[in-house]
Each structure stands twice: as structure tokens, then as C-alpha cells.
Amino acid sequence: MLECGMLEQDKRALRRRSAVLCKQLVVDELLIQCLQADEILTESMAESIMAEQTSHKRSWRLLLLLPKRGPRAFSHFCSALQETEQQHLYELLTQSPQKDGKETPAERFVDSSLRLPTQEVIAAKRARTHAESMEFSLDADSPINTPVLPCAPDFYLSHCQQSYRMNSSPRGLALVISNVTFDPCAAPDLDPRKGGEVDDEVLRKVFTELDYSVTVQRDLTAQGMRTCIENFCRRTDHRTVDSCVVCLLSHGVEGAIYGTDGQLLQLDWVFESFDNAHCPLLQNKPKMFFIQACRGEEMDCGVEQIDGPPRTCSPSCEQRDAGREGQGDANSRQRGDLGRPRIKLPQRSDMICGFASLKGTAAMRNTKRGSWFIQELNSTLRLHARDTHLADIMVQVNAHIKEREGYAPGTAHHRCKEMSEFTSSLCKDLFLFPKYQPQY
């Protein structure tokens, strides 16, 4: 089993040469087979790399994976370069920075960046180039931060008729509620969600790049969350936009999430708030929900693998997003009659909800990089929102989470797995069409 994380000097070497590698590296089946034979890449990783349609994208995906593949990954990658007759890249990587005597602005940016994703690089006032963004994301302790890839005009024109309308700018309003610190007196059993602050920043950035107007609220009580959601539902801006996003991040149990005061907010109440009766401005518009919280205390401990490719060790610093078992709030909300629409709709339609874990199980969170579910949602949206239905994006998120199987032997979470799931009442295809604005 691989140890986790590449040596720091090897990560720096990859970062220094990442722009050149993306342009000149030939990622073919021979190179991939060499890395598979050395157990640096799993079969599913190899397939995901080779599925990319251009050499640049294959190189970029490989360079994102290598820093997370253990201390042997760099040396085996260098050996693979030699075996595939890419000696010039081998020499470039193994050459000491003092010897070449040059330092590019991109290298200065990366080397001066702070290590933890919870800290911001204040000095960088300009927008990063694609290469710089890619280099920054090579740090295994940082969320993937490559720019959202834009939708091509041809793709939009061929899919817009059968899809939800997604032409407004902004595309919609987004609400992120992230509970990180809990009241030690009112909720003594709820530990701080270390890494949760990374999640809400990741979501803010990715949905801003997807052209949403994002509001982030941190550390709310159950009543505070109710008030925040009610105010969000009543915003008149929903009339002029084409969609809506709601992200809830906290400790939780099946069907509910905790406020910072240890009280539960029922998810069914949340969905009801956005249904066709209670939020008429969002009728016939897609409403996306992403819930990062446990849905119980059970851990999916898996079964011993007897066939197929080996799995790899997950990073350390993992925690469950579980709280304590509790009873839901029995008080349901009384609402006034908003009137019937002229055309009758199902009361709850045009919704899709992604959950971080299966019913009754705990969700996993890394104390440095944030939760597994949000990490994978972020990277998959950035890479594939341009040409992939949101339901298929959620399937890809689940597939990537399944690759994170084991922990270090002897820990409480050894061989524990998380699987996400989603529910949908969408009536049309849902493509976000990032960075594409139709010309009329």
C-alpha cells in the first residue's frame, strides 16, 4: 500500500516544470503502463487519464494525480520518462534549480504560496494564467483550482433546445450555509468541523466562476438557518434568473442537519421551501441542492477485495462528519396559501439533490483539504460542467469518491469507504453551459 503524499522537494520540481510538461509530455499507453506496473496508478486512474481527448489534458490530469501517489511516485515517473524516450524531460525534472539559475514568475508565485488551502495568497493581485492555476493545484494539500472550462458554442446550440434555459447572467442565486464551529455548551457532542472552512470557500469560488451570485453564511443556529433560507426564498431576484443553488454543510443525521446550537433543521422543510407552492418565482427552473453532512453513524467498512485493481491509501487527517443521534424538530411550519398556478405542477419538481453519503452512513472530511464530496464536486464541475449533464456529473463524483478506499492500517477508519448519492425530479437535461452567453 502506498504511503500518502509526495516528498516536498519532488512536488516543487513538478511545480517548477509543470508548464513545460503540459506542453511537451507525451502521455501514451506505454507511459501509463509503466506507472501501472510500478503501482503508481490504479486501473481506473489510467482509464480516466487516457479518456481525455487531448495530449495537454492527459498531461494535466496525470500531473494532478502524481503528488498524491506517495513518495515513490516521482522517481518512478522519472524512470517512465526514460523508458518512453523522453530523456529531455527527465533531465529537466532532475536538474537542480540552482544549476539552471532561472526562476520564472510562475515559480515565484507557487513557491511563495501558503501551504494550507484555508489561507489566501494576498500578494497576487492579477488573474492567474492557466499554467499558474494548474501549478497551484499540484499541491496535494490544496483543492483543485483550475479555471472552469468554458462551454463551446457548438455544444450549446446542439443541446439548448432539450435543456433547461440557462441564459441569464447571473445564471442564478446560490446560498452556502457552512457550520464549522459549534456551541460547546449547547452542543457539547458536536466537534468543530476542521476543514469545513475550506469547503465553503471552494464552493464560493466554483459557483462564482459558473456565473452565480453567491451568498455564504457561516455558523448559524437551526433557527438562524431557517431565517436565512426563508429570506433567500423570498428574494425577488429569482424572477430574473434561470436557476438556484443551495449548499448546506454541517454535522447531520438522516433527514436533518445540525445548527451550531445542537438543534436540527429538517431537510424536508428545506426542500419544501423551494417547491412550486412556496417559491413560485422558481417554478420550472432547476433547483440544485448539495448536502455535506452525515446521514447516520454507520461506517461503510466494505469487504475484502479478492479481484480487480488494488486500491490506494487515502490521505491522513480524515474525520467523520457525524454528530450525535437526535430527534427531528417536530414543529412543522405553517404557511399561508400562495394561490394555485394557472397550470398545475407537481408540488416538488425540477430539483436535484446531491448527498455526501448514503442513507444511514457517515460522510468523510479531510481537516486540511475539506470534505471528500465537496472536493470531487469542485473538480468535476470545473472540468466537465462545460459538456456534461449535472446528473452525470454526480455519477462521476461518486466514482471518484469510490477510489478513496482505505486509511492507514490500525486506525479506526481502516478500509472505510464513502459513497455519495443523489435524487432528482428534473424534467429536462440540466447543463450549466459555463461561460457561454448566447448572442441574440
Written account of the structure:
- By secondary structure, this protein is an alpha/beta fold.
- It has 16 helices and twelve strands.
- A six-stranded mixed beta sheet has the order 2-1-3-7-9-12, with helices on both faces. A three-stranded antiparallel beta sheet has the order 4-5-6. Strands 8-10-11 form a three-stranded antiparallel beta sheet.
- A hairpin with a 2-residue loop joins β4 (252-253) and β5 (256-258).
- α9 (105-112) runs parallel beside α10 and α12 packs parallel to α15 (372-384).
- The radius of gyration is 23 Å and the shape is globular.
- Residues 100-140, 299-316, 324-342 and 405-417 have low confidence and may be disordered.
Care to give the gist of this entry?
The protein is 34% helix and 12% strand.
Topology:
Elements: H1 8-16, H2 18-24, H3 29-37, H4 43-50, H5 55-65, H6 73-83, H7 87-94, H8 97-100, H9 105-112, H10 130-137, H11 153-159, E1 172-178, H12 196-209, E2 212-218, H13 222-233, E3 243-249, E4 252-253, E5 256-258, E6 264-266, H14 267-273, E7 287-292, E8 318-320, E9 351-355, E10 364-366, E11 370-371, H15 372-384, H16 390-402, E12 421-424
Helix pairs in contact: 2-5, 3-6, 4-5, 6-7, 9-10, 12-15, 15-16
Mean pLDDT: 77
What's the gyration radius in Å? 23 Å
Q: Report the structural category.
A: alpha/beta
* H/E series: HHHHHHHHHHHEHEHEEEEHEEEEEHHE
What is the multimeric organization of the chains shown? single chain
Number of strands: 12
Query: Uncertain segments of ≥5 residues (pLDDT<50)?
Result: 100-140, 299-316, 324-342, 405-417
Shape: globular
Strand order of the largest sheet: 2-1-3-7-9-12
The largest sheet, given as strand count, sense and whether it forms a barrel, is: 6 strands, mixed
The separation of the N and C termini measures 56 Å
**Which strand-content bin applies to the residues?**
5-15%
Query: Roughly how much helix do the residues carry, as a percent range?
Result: 25-40%
